[in-house]
Amino acid sequence: MDPTKTKAWEDLSALSSTDGQARLRDLFAEDEDRFEQLSFEAAGLFLDASKTRVTHRAMDALFALAGETGVEERRRRMFAGEAINETEGRAVLHVALRDNRHGKYSVDGKDPMPEIEAVRERMKSFTDAVTSGERKGATGKPLTTVVNIGIGGSDLGPVMVTEALRPYHIDGREVHFVSNVDGTHLSEVLRRIDPERTLFTIASKTFTTQETMTNARSARDWFLKQGGSEADIAKHFVALSTNHQATAEFGIDPENVFGFWDWVGGRYSLWSAIGLPIALTVGWDSFEDLLSGAHAMDRHFEEAPLRENLPIVMGLVGLWHRTFLDMPAVAVLPYDQSLSRLPAYLQQADMESNGKGRRLDGSKVTYETGPIVFGEPGTNGQHAFYQLIHQGTTEILCEFIAPAISHNPLGDHHEKLLANFLAQPEALMVGVTEDEARAQLKEQGASDEEADRLAPHKAFPGNRPSVSILMQKLTPQTLGALIALYEHKIFVQGAVWGVNSYDQFGVELGKVLAKPILAELKGEADAEHDRSTSGLIARIRSLRAD
Ligand code: F6P
């Protein structure tokens, strides 16, 4: 449906120029309970949306919009296993991967749980055998190093989670991730590892992705050159994929293939066999805790009333800023070094899901959809791009994330980190008027002339919105809940915008065009291009010939 035809959309459009322009300082002054009313808690996460530019009237209209656009019905259809990925005719059931309930889900009339459990059981036995040292490499040495070869959803989730769960790593285990087709990525990792102790996990849903297949073949060649035999490959290479024919053609024994299903989207797949490198690094129990944290958020999303529902609230608040207040970007700002890869992970999760310009029926959208997602851990980002967020001409919705307790309590580091986590949203909200800036300058001894000259530069517009997400500690459970919160937030926004959040045709054209160019660069063919591309190809050829 076209959401602009709803009454709530009309109301929100009107509110965007009134309530949407209200000053947060005033909203807090007028309403003592604003923080209590606009903060929410579930599955170990506390979400404060009170520093965003919503009013109670805007929230009412946003909930009405969710109702009119059928968000709850689409949620029901997702959990029921209906093919809500309509362009690809697939169900979207990553929630089932972190559940245990038989009879809850159905795909094409069949309960997927027995198959999910069977793969989980194999992953568990394999993980236990490798981490205990019982399963050894071809020369009898324990497999202490994992090299995951995959890209996009077959890389970003496992990278982000293994980094986030560093305190849970099993002693003595090493994990590396190779994604880029740039030979530097693989070479740098191969230089550092011992083939006799290395297990390669080749992760690709389709098992056709150029980067992954190229890296996998090169890793295999390297392994053989290091003295491994063809027979040894079975002990050192496993595949994580839905494409059993392609894994067999690659030469991977079916015993060494951990499968999943077409109803698991690539960017929603870390809960499936794609999570094997996570389990091999943190152990099976922690991997299960990650699943259970996500499941707690799933239950909350499915069962909690709209007005108390974190993913619904976060999705609607984000949509208000993106579509009605025209803010182009979301900054993901984890105040936790171990979440350093979360922004990159969410870039794919959000931008590949909701970076769409057509509704399900093919009609063009006439409003802004998925935001640009970027970020860095605090406090590093503060010394890089926060200048623009505070004083630039573009307003950006910021999402601050922090654990109250650190895994590495070192002196007062964590208190300092938290002080910044709290001060930045406060500064963004309150700002500094020119008068305040002038008065401060004078207090510091500036002359009237000097104060007048510098005040405009030292003023902060303020009223810049942010969400804060707090947890007690970053554990497998809270991390699982956090990722699921974002997955469902993306779902909610996609449902209101009426787009299919689960396909990604936008990544195809570049892949198709790269094929003939590759043949040209190898000198095997010539092709017609625009003059710029032809000029660049000629220039590359001449640079390589020098
Ligand atoms: O970037 C496009 C994409 O299809 C992603 O959606 C996916 O996560 C990634 O490529 C990797 O795909 P695969 O797991 O099939 O190798």
Automatic annotation (TrEMBL):
Cross-referenced PROSITE patterns, in alphabetical order? P_GLUCOSE_ISOMERASE_1, P_GLUCOSE_ISOMERASE_2, P_GLUCOSE_ISOMERASE_3
Going by the entry's taxonomy, the superkingdom of the source organism is recorded as: Bacteria
What does the record give as the active site? E352 (proton donor), H383, K511
Entries under Pfam families matching the protein: PGI
- Catalytic reaction(s) noted: alpha-D-glucose 6-phosphate = beta-D-fructose 6-phosphate
Which Enzyme Commission number(s) are listed?
5.3.1.9
**Does the keyword Cytoplasm belong to this entry?**
yes
Localization in the cell: Cytoplasm
Q: In which pathway does it act?
A: Carbohydrate biosynthesis; gluconeogenesis; Carbohydrate degradation; glycolysis; D-glyceraldehyde 3-phosphate and glycerone phosphate from D-glucose: step 2/4
Which CDD domains does the record associate with it? SIS_PGI_1 (cd05015), SIS_PGI_2 (cd05016)
Grouped into one coarse class, the protein's main location is: cytoplasm
UniProt GO molecular function: glucose-6-phosphate isomerase activity
| Keyword annotations | Cytoplasm, Gluconeogenesis, Glycolysis, Isomerase
The family this protein is said to belong to: Belongs to the GPI family.
- Which purpose does this protein serve, as stated in its record? Catalyzes the reversible isomerization of glucose-6-phosphate to fructose-6-phosphate.
HAMAP family, alphabetized: G6P_isomerase (MF_00473)
Protein name, as recorded? Glucose-6-phosphate isomerase
Give the organism, scientific name: Parvularcula lutaonensis
Q: What is the lineage of its organism?
A: Bacteria, Pseudomonadati, Pseudomonadota, Alphaproteobacteria, Parvularculales
